[in-house]
Amino acid sequence: GRQHINEVYRISVDKLYDILFNKSQFMSDFMEQRRFSDVVYHPWKKDEGGHQTREIMYTISLSNPLAPKTAAVTETQTLYKASQESECYIIDAEVITHDVPYHDYFYTLNRYMLTRVAKNKCRLRISTELRFRKQPWGLVKGLIEKNFWSGLEENFRHLEMELAKLEEVMNEASQLS
Ligand code: YK8
Q1: Other beta carbons within 10 Å of 171
Q2: Helix/strand/coil (H, E, C) string of 61-78?
Q3: I need a surface site. Which of 4, 44, 65, 105 has the fewest CB within 10 A?
Q4: CATH code reported for the domain at 2-176
Q5: Residue 20 parent element (H or E)
Q6: What is the pLDDT along the chain (177 residues), one digit of tens a residue?
Q7: ipTM of this complex
């Protein structure tokens, strides 16, 4: 996989989990800026292995000339049972982008790891794997890889920037009180 973010924030691990994985103002602003629409969250459910899973559906808008203007997305998140409140959260997100060219060849696996560093500090790591469902021929594989990584990196650069702003605002607010 490829790592996008490996950063320590002055935010408690529970708070950051809440911001990234519950319906927070931060995530709804982020999704609005990325022009995500029709977001539907399904509730978490326990699976046979004791992990929790849920599905999120949304529509993304794309500026890639090879892709349509919008694409439907299904994101399946697994919160691993190894996760522990106030200590660590491990989440895998399998993302299927319907409607884009060659969508039946690949999907995305994003892994989010949040770990406690101190009471009000945590480390966030996000990495991605490009997974193939069937083997495309070389030319197509190259095309998918190139467009895949450029789109993903753009998204996570933006997330990193917004998280830095959030950290700033949260710490200013806590110093005032
Ligand atoms: C989630 C991976 C690939 C896809 C895109 C595909 C182009 C294919 C073109 C042909 C557009 C928010 C991406 C980046 C769209 C955005 C997806 C996001 C960023 C010619 C090969 C959506 C994380 C995520 C996962 C996968 C990303 C898609 O939180 O290039």
Answers
A1: 14
A2: ECCCCCCCCEEEEEEEEE
A3: 65
A4: 3.30.530.20
A5: helix 13-21
A6: 899 999 999 999 999 999 999 999 999 999 999 999 999 999 999 999 999 999 999 999 999 999 999 999 999 999 999 999 999 999 999 999 999 999 999 999 999 999 999 999 999 999 999 999 999 999 999 999 999 999 999 999 999 999 999 999 998 888 876
A7: 0.96
Please list every protein residue whose CB sits less than 6 Å from any atom of ligand 1. Answer: 60, 62, 64, 66-67, 95, 97, 100-102, 108, 110, 143-144, 147-148, 151-152, 155
Pull the structure tokens for residue 66.
Answer: 């090879």
Ligand 1 pocket test target in 21, 77, 95 with most atoms within 8 Å of CB: 95
Residue type, 132: F
